[in-house]
Amino acid sequence: xxxxxxxxxxxxxxxxxxxxxxxxxxxxxxxxxxxxxxxxxxxxxxxxxxxxxxxxxxxxxxxxxxxxxxxxxxxxxxxxxxxxxxxxxxxxxxxxxxxxxxxxxxxxxxxxxxxxxxxxxxxxxxxxxxxxxxxxxxxxxxxxxxxxxxxxxxxxxxxxxxxxxxxxxxxxxxxxxxxxxxxxxxxxxxxxxxxxxxxxxxx
Amino acid sequence: xxxxxxxxxxxxxxxxxxxxxxxxxxxxxxxxxxxxxxxxxxxxxxxxxxxxxxxxxxxxxxxxxxxxxxxxxxxxxxxxxxxxxxxxxxxxxxxxxxxxxxxxxxxxxxxxxxxxxxxxxxxxxxxxxxxxxxxxxxxxxxxxxxxxxxxxxxxxxxxxxxxxxxxxxxxxxxxxxxxxxxxxxxxxxxxxxxxxxxxxxxxxxxxxxxxxxxxxxxxxxxxxxxxxxxxxxxxxxxxxxxxxxxxxxxxxxxxxxxxxxxxxxxxxxxxxxxxxxxxxxxxxxxxxxxxxxxxxxxxxxxxxxxxxxxxxxxxxxxxxxxxxxxxxxxxxxxxxxxxxxxxxxxxxxxxxxxxxxxxxxxxxxxxxxxxxxxxxxxxxxxxxxxxxxxxxxxxx
Lengths: 203, 396
What we know:
The structure holds 2 protein chains of 2 kinds.
Chain A: E1 7-10, H1 22-33, E2 43-46, E3 57-62, H2 70-81, E4 85-90, H3 98-110, E5 115-116, H4 138-141, E6 154-158, E7 161-167, H5 171-174, H6 191-202
Parallel strand pairs in A: 1-2, 1-3, 3-4, 4-7
Antiparallel strand pairs in A: 5-6, 6-7
Helix pairs in contact in A: 1-6
Chain B: H1 4-31, H2 33-37, E1 40-44, H3 45-57, E2 62-66, H4 73-84, E3 88-92, E4 100-105, E5 113-118, E6 124-129, E7 133-138, E8 144-148, E9 154-159, E10 162-167, E11 170-172, E12 176-182, H5 185-197, E13 201-208, E14 211-215, E15 226-233, H6 237-248, E16 252-258, E17 269-275, E18 278-285, E19 288-293, H7 299-303, H8 312-327, E20 332-334, H9 345-353, H10 372-392
Parallel strand pairs in B: 1-2, 2-3, 12-13, 12-15, 15-16, 16-19
Antiparallel strand pairs in B: 4-5, 5-8, 6-7, 6-9, 9-10, 11-20, 13-14, 17-18, 18-19
Helix pairs in contact in B: 1-10, 3-4, 4-9, 5-8
């Protein structure tokens, strides 16, 4: 069986590799909690390359301004039109920050303006149950970034499915640690990452 | 032993009866107008429609038609009636192309029909439906076979001036599909493609031990609910358990690359498709069919396909739909065929009017008919003979 490969999208502008430990951490969680056949390491693939279409779930993050090239926009459209999903996380946790503002502009140009995802969406019970919607992050609770606790994630929908999931909650900081360190957490904070992957694979 | 006189009387009676019969025949001929005008006629294709009423009133003794194409069905019916009324009808043509087609609704919710037509090898066959021309296809040794959209249940083919039309004789009753597999891109995109095609899909996706994502209702393979079941990989335990009975009772089973060991396989199989990375094989098990797909990662056809050639999403969808249509259990319900249906016009014309003949001269010989004047002569002769016989034996 072909294994699920976690893919981080590289874009020419900005710092696409700002959270290098997130893939390993989520791969570890998927292997730990599910029977999904998952590759032990992720891949980094250029958004502008057609090879990105081999990975129907793509993770994008960063701190710096994002400006997609024409090829990157084209592939974002292709990937979502064909049934893939893109997860974009604002590593600044700042809705006035440069990543958020530019990424939102680019997403709107490439696809459409993201809308709030209701907190009873199936994303929040695709594997683990999150009754109150998206789990909070320590960055939110500690007042970093925009000093807000964001109630909703946002998304671009295609035929009732999330084609692009946008988070201002800074899961990239929350999950950017070595998987071995999970043992120090009372509750594994990467569980919502498992939901995102299971949702992408099953809906 | 009868006496010569009594034998002579019998002969005289016979002559009287013959005379009377000839008189009746001559009178009937005189009273039947068509008989007065029976003749040989030749007609070209352009004259037939205008001449039919006249031939119905005054039927020619022999009628020869020189045709450029198969006659319309109403003209074939009309001419068959004239022939049955006594006209010796012959026809020939150097241009008529034999065509015949069938139209079958495929078990596919998109409503596509399969059109199979016979036509001369290498001829260019124009395919059309009630709306207009759909395609043109060069015929091979076994004609053509194309899928056409289900806009109407009527389609036709043309080669040159020859046309044939057919409507589907029945419609397929579509049941649901069952897809089972582990959480993977193959399972996800198989379900998505079939649902996008219009199939109602029950799906079981295994995510973790004891944790499944289920869509739809019960998942017991049964032909009362499912047309086909699809095992995506070796985790398809529900399909595996019921597959054998399901297929033997008429259902269809498709196993994708990682489910090659799931379910029964027929004693013999045929290769439906071949690519460097594997085959697609079909076999029959009991009343049902099994397709084993040897291609790995079908989902890549959808995600990574080259959109400069065709729409990869539509191509992936259509490929899976074709595989399902090949095995699906779909009971048929007869529908009324429309009156313009003419699926094998040349065969129908031969059936009604007989096989073509080379020329009027080569046609089957006319029924011989003795002229009335000869009959009258025989009548007079028999009367004179009867009279002479009576006088010579002294009777009045």
